[in-house]
Amino acid sequence: GGAATPWSALLDAVATSLPAPSAPAFLAAREASGWDADAQASSPDAGAALAAWLDAGAARLSIGLPLEARLKSDAADGTATLALLSAGGAALDPASAPARAASWAALPGDVARLSADLTLPPSRLVAAALETVAGASGDARLEAALGCAALSKALASKAALSCDAACFSAACKAAASAMWQRARRGDEIAGKFAKLGVTATLDASVDAESTLTHAVGTASVKLTSGSAEWASDASASLSVVQPD
Predict the structure, then answer these.
(1) SS3 state of residue 227
(2) Rounded Cα gap, residues 191 and 193, in angstroms
(3) Considering only CA atoms, which of 124, 104, 144, 130 is closest in space to residue 196?
(4) For residues 126 and 214, is the Cβ–Cβ distance under 8 A?
(5) Rounded-to-integer distance, Cα 162 and Cα 151, Å
(6) Radius of gyration (Cα) for the chain, nearest Å?
(7) Which of 81, 95, 88, 86 shows the shortest CA–CA distance to 68?
(8) Cα–Cα distance between 168 and 165 in angstroms, integer?
(9) Using one digit for the tens of pLDDT, what is the confidence trace for 217-233?
(10) What do you get for the CA distance between the two ends of the chain, in Å?
């Protein structure tokens, strides 16, 4: 059936995660016996738990996430590259957060003024916020929120299939992980990126050739997606760290 509820989406994903001999029988039994409603009934508190997690993630995102980036500059012309390393403590890969051109200028007092426009899929930020408030990986939290333990027992008690509770538990865990990864990478897959406007005054050192050799500190970030502003200038901080 179509994924009209989180439990329907979970059962869709479970079906693709089952061992090959069990999948056709699972799909037929699900359709004939109305397992989507049974899945929701197996974890009556799961909906509230999922909603509370999403609300907490939204609240965390609204006050800003700590970001970390690495600045590299080998030139004396005020150019550099700035690459996001993590959001909310979650590592970002170069494909989702590519390095972008940055500009800097040396100021009196061993400081440098930095500016750059970075890009990041909004779904990555949402996922980072959800993992921050969960204190756990998103797939593990989603597995718990959707009640995989209770659902596995409920499914194993249904029509005889070549899949016991342990088999369904493994499939449910894999399904929750697949759902989480799709959600986390959703905007990235769709080609949707938010702009992060970065401005910073950093502790810096410049060598005799006017090349930036050291720059660390905290930047203010304005995050925008289309015409909607996601955060004010002061709501996110970006730590700039030295290259390895």
Answers:
(1) coil
(2) 6
(3) 124
(4) no
(5) 17
(6) 23
(7) 86
(8) 5
(9) 777 777 666 544 444 33
(10) 50
